Amino acid sequence: MGRKLSEPTPAELDTVEINRLLATDPASAARLLEAAARRDRADAQAWLGQMYLDGQGLQKDAQEAVYWFQRAAHADVPMAMNMLGRCYENGWGTTQDFALALVWYRRAAAQDLDWAIYNLAQMHANGRAVDKDRAEAFRLFTQAASMGHARAKHFLGQFYEHGWEVDADPEHAFRLYRESAEGGDYRGMCSWASVLAGAGRVEDAADLIRRAVPLAPTHYLAPLAAQLDQAASAPLRDTARWVREVLAQR
């Protein structure tokens, strides 16, 4: 008989197999990761924390997610540090604490994790645990964007479009929106759709918005629909109605 998936040793964790199972049998992937996590495999701990946070392959449990993120973060796994910061920032499975979120984002950013640099930029942009500092946010969004971070490119595009902390450069802004959209970020997709609509490519814009909506969180959809209601073209107003239908089904 072959080795049971539930009984790996730390050295036997097979990330290729885990990714396959995540697509075909998430519950087995969760069992495999939990067994490795309990044997102090830090990468498995980070992965397991994300699965508990998302409710993938096991019952959603934000407190359990925090527990595993903490263990992996203290073992210097950058993504676990970032996700622990996210939990503190949003109050997922723990008390909301912007100061602790900032600590963990900074630790992960120091290891050049693009998501942590992006999240740190948002902390400065929104004044969470620090004074609002748009110049520092611009610097950090630029750093994350240079690493290929799709969502950072969208926000950096806004700086160039509106001339925040830099001379306005709509052409560069639109290029960043396009790159963000190509990277699969829903905000970038909607911003690039706006550029396409302005250029008369209304059908392309509507199609792109429809591809962005499944990727977007629920709180983003009502404002998006309200914005589309104001569009001059019928295809975009029709898309607003479709967005509300999607929202009603969530």
Automatic annotation (TrEMBL):
SMART domains: SEL1
Cross-referenced Pfam families: Sel1 (PF08238)
InterPro entries: Mitotic_Regulator, Sel1-like, TPR-like_helical_dom_sf
Protein name: Sel1 repeat family protein
Taxonomic placement: Bacteria, Pseudomonadati, Pseudomonadota, Gammaproteobacteria, Lysobacterales
